[in-house]
Write a structure and sequence with these properties.
Length: about 200
């Protein structure tokens, strides 16, 4: 959790900066979907983490890039959030992940992530339509992509064992737990700052 907390702190603060909001608000259901996703991940547990202590690994979340002030606009923060959700979705949308976990909660989790990605994409498109420059794949967003690549390498090295998937499940829970709070912040702050009443004052 300590490795992912800088992501939450750095990105949430960005939504409060003047001139930094996306200009659109994530739907109110976005936060509820995040909470539902965490419940589903909890239901996917197949064995005790205490049986997998030897399989633990520090995936080295790139917190130094986030603490270095590279994210200067809310749109860049949203791009990082989108990459986090997309990479999580990709990781869970494979034949091996289907074999590792029960189908019902896994399907629900995939569906929830897909809904969140659609909402975030719509928000980014709206912001781009209002003259904002679309963020590219660089810096922190690229670092998150590499972070997930390390997770995939770990799974392969561990032979996609039950313990390896359990360690990854816990890692995903930490990531989505942080991003859930971030999404609350984006939805509230952007909704407040981008609303007509705020613009007229």
């Amino acid at each position: 959790m300590a490795l992912l907390r800088p992501l939450l702190t750095a990105l949430a603060l960005l939504t409060c900066r003047p001139g930094g909001p996306l200009g659109c608000a994530l739907p109110g259901s976005h936060a509820q979907v995040s909470r539902d996703n965490l419940v589903l991940l909890g239901q996917m547990r197949r064995l005790s983490p205490f049986l997998c202590l030897r399989a633990r690994k520090d995936f080295r979340f790139p917190r130094e890039m986030l603490e270095g002030g590279q994210l200067r606009e809310a749109q860049a923060a949203a791009a990082v959030l989108r990459e986090l959700l997309q990479q999580t979705f990709n990781l869970l949308h494979t034949e091996r992940s289907s074999a590792a976990w029960s189908p019902a909660p896994l399907h629900g989790l995939r569906s929830g992530l897909h809904r969140q990605l659609e909402a975030l994409d719509a928000c980014l498109v709206q912001a781009a339509g209002e003259g904002e420059r679309a963020p590219g794949m660089h810096g922190p967003a690229l670092a998150i992509k590499r972070y997930f690549q390390d997770i995939r390498v770990y799974l392969e090295d561990e032979g996609y064992s039950d313990c390896a998937w359990e360690i990854v499940r816990l890692e995903i829970m930490r990531a989505l737990s942080s991003s859930a709070t971030l999404q609350d912040s984006l939805a509230i702050k952007d909704g407040d700052l981008g609303s007509p009443s705020s613009d007229s004052q």
